[in-house]
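Reminder: ligand-aware prediction takes two inputs, not one.
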Amino acid sequence: MSKVFEFLKKPGTQIALLIVFLALISGAAWGLYLTQVPPVQPIQFPHSTHVNLQIPCLYCHPGAWRQASAGLPTEQKCWACHGQLKKYYQPEVPVENWPVELQKLSAYVKENKPINWVPVYQVPDFVHFNHRPHIAAGVNCENCHGDMSKKTVATLEQTVNMGWCINCHKSKTENDPVKRTKLLDCSTCHY
Ligand code: HEC
Ligand code: HEC
Ligand code: HEC
Ligand code: HEC
Ligand code: HEC
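Here is what comes back for the chain with heme C:
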């Protein structure tokens, strides 16, 4: 025991421990940073504005209730609305005077170029995730993606790992052993 203390008291050891300690702290801080800083998107799309206008999530992400992936809107979908928004049609508001993010949108439409949105939520290839059964079972978008009415671009609200999936599958099947077996079976989520 005393040998351990002597070892710990050596200045070299203390510096090494300090370095390990700092590395752990900064690692944790980096993890936090990664989850809170959204990726830079081609257009700073304001979810809050659109969600508060009562535009349904499924209007822009229609895949969520019928297939595996929810899907992201194309510039045509945005333009179907923004092209109609009267205030921008008036000759006294030329494109150069539009809000910057809408100028970008207009350029994508004019050049017929797809907007390459940067993915935020992702599971690895060996995992099978499907939106449909979740929406069908009444799990809300908000449960997994947070309150989008308070955000601009999407941020990662939830580290997508196996523990998260399993915990919810357990909690949703407390009184249904057959369903529990199915939802915890490796092959339900892994090909
Ligand atoms: C169903 C209609 C609708 C759709 C679809 C839509 N928007 Fe909007 N958007 C609006 C309205 C209404 C506003 C708020 C009024 C305004 O700024 O003209 C708005 C505001 C915005 C703003 C803020 C503009 C500012 O004043 O700073 C941006 C940026 C924007 N939208 C981008 C997009 C993009 C990108 C898409 C496609 C992914 C999209 N919108 C799809 C209706 C829509
Ligand atoms: C049970 C949790 C859960 C629920 C509920 C959920 N999602 Fe997702 N969502 C995920 C996961 C996990 C991913 C990553 C999927 C992947 O990489 O294949 C994702 C990805 C996405 C994506 C981007 C990739 C894609 O699928 O096209 C969008 C957009 C999205 N979700 C929107 C929604 C909307 C809108 C709702 C509600 C109608 C919703 N989600 C409900 C967990 C959920
Ligand atoms: C007017 C269109 C529009 C509406 C309405 C809308 N979204 Fe989105 N959503 C987008 C666009 C554009 C992106 C890509 C930019 C980004 O990541 O923020 C996106 C991205 C997302 C992502 C991240 C996708 C990824 O890459 O992982 C999630 C999650 C999401 N939306 C959920 C929702 C939910 C939940 C609602 C309803 C409360 C909603 N959205 C309403 C247009 C919309
Ligand atoms: C917030 C709760 C919740 C989270 C988080 C969640 N699930 Fe689910 N999952 C459910 C519910 C509820 C069902 C539907 C059960 C039923 O059939 O009634 C379901 C069903 C499924 C199914 C369909 C099973 C079948 O019947 O074939 C798959 C696959 C699945 N989840 C994968 C995942 C994966 C992968 C993750 C993590 C990335 C995940 N889930 C995260 C609640 C959740
Ligand atoms: C409800 C969905 C779900 C079930 C059931 C599930 N997994 Fe996973 N698993 C995931 C997700 C999501 C990931 C990817 C994220 C991560 O690495 O945590 C993953 C990752 C893994 C990995 C890679 C871990 C790593 O660190 O890269 C292994 C190995 C694995 N699972 C084995 C299993 C085994 C064995 C079972 C059955 C006892 C099982 N899984 C059941 C969702 C699930």
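DSSP finds eleven helices and no strands in the chain. The radius of gyration is 24 Å. We will return to this case in the review session.
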